[in-house]
Specification:
Layout lengths: L2 E9 L4 E9 L4 E2 L13 E11 L2 E11 L5 E9 L14 H7 L9 E9 L2 E8 L2 E9 L2 H6 L5 E10 L10 E14 L8 E3 L5 E6 H11 L6 H8 L2 E6 L5 E8 L5
Helix pairs in contact: 3-4
Amino acid sequence: MGGWHLAHRATDKNNYTAIASMIDLPKTCICINDSGQYDNYDGVFPEFIHGFYVDGIGIDIGIIYRRNMNNQNVFKIFHFGDNKLCEHIAPANETEYDELKRTLKGASFNDTVTLSTYLNNNEIIAEVFKDNHSIAKHVVKLTDYGKNKFKNGAKINREILMASNRTNYLECGAKFSTMKMYRSTLTKSDGNDDDKYEILSSSNSTVLHKADEEFEMYYNNLHIIQYIDELINGYKCTFKEQSDYGNYIEDIASCDFTPYY
């Protein structure tokens, strides 16, 4: 899915089968829902995700804030991936029970949760925990092609973004306050019992996109010349990275697309 990448971090290697990250959900969150329920995907949504990629194609899976079947905005698990890699259930064919399994039950703004995602034979699974209890789960079936692609692991992304398939989403009104993804632990496909896990740190990952770069890319694509610093100040999109205890790397971001003039 397209959109504004506030913090897009990727592992340098592609031999990982799982990642678990702590997430401090934002204190405030506003999404712009699709204008059509099933056939017009033009909304703007806060997303906090993991991505599994091999040879430039992959699957994003994680937490999105958007409308449910009862017309309420909620945090829930979702996935978006290449059709060659995974199966998709059309929204029109999903039951309310299916959606409920993906909804973060008992989680709200400013809560701390853990997002765990992992490859499991012919599936990729995402599960969210709060206070050590599972509150949502989503299972995605891999195609035979996807299973073969991921057999030796994947490059893993950790992302904070404002997702949209629109061409223009500035001033749309979507926003989320400062939130954080941190203390991520990776599982290696080729590790033994003593060397199976690895922390996500600045030494084994690279930031591919961040807030200020996205402003420049966005306006260059539209052929509009603006002062980047003025835009960052005006739209209040922020990103910073810092080391947590034990050399974990944490990404902190916020995004505010409410008009400022």
